[in-house]
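User: I'm writing a tutorial on reading structure tokens. Could you give me a worked example: one chain, its sequence, then its tokens, then a sentence or two explaining what the tokens reveal?
Assistant: Sure. Here is the example chain.
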Amino acid sequence: MGELRERHRQWARTEKEKIGEIPTLKKKAEYIWEYYKLWIIGIICAVWFFSFAIHQYTTTLHDYWCYMIFANTYADAGTGSEIWEDYVEYAGFDLDEKEVEFNANSYFDYLKGVTGNTYFEAFVTYADGGILDGIVMGNGSLAALGKSGRLMDLDSEECASIKAKYGDRFIYSEPFDEEYSKDLVPVGIDISDSKLVTQYKAYPIDIALGIGAKSERVDAVEKFLDFILE
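And here are its predicted structure tokens:
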């Protein structure tokens, strides 16, 4: 074991000296990437997986009555805000039993591209993990987001009650997969005239609400719609 450790130290010293003799930073970077790219990629993947695992663990520790994302707003609309308190009271949720989470710290626009956007990556985690119940953002942004396949088809059986009440408010998206549908798919409910705009001033523009594709708490989203549109 000691001999192996000494060999490793000698190799590290040799590599350090070799890199030190390379004249420019660009050439140093090229050398490191050429000989160590597999190690670098492996480390990046390991860090990403560890971060993802921690994120999954911490977000699934809780049991929710409802988990909502209010994207692209700088208003006070998060957990503990006036709108949160009013909704919890309206719905009659017992917070000693489960939680209601309003996430108002999310900023991404599918129309403008989301590569490398950590807020979008968090959204994907919530949506794919079945944590996300609803998301609010601008009409165009939500319609574009529907192409990702992470918003529920509002023509589905789970949304029958919502469709009966609010079907005239539906906004549509191109299908994420033509095998799923060749027609436009309803992915959002227009709530531009809701309390979110008129009373709570959370958004100054046309907005819509979509439901997470894997949500099992559609009834909680329906309660929220009733609350803001009554």
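What the tokens reveal: The radius of gyration is 24 Å. Residues 2-57 form one domain.
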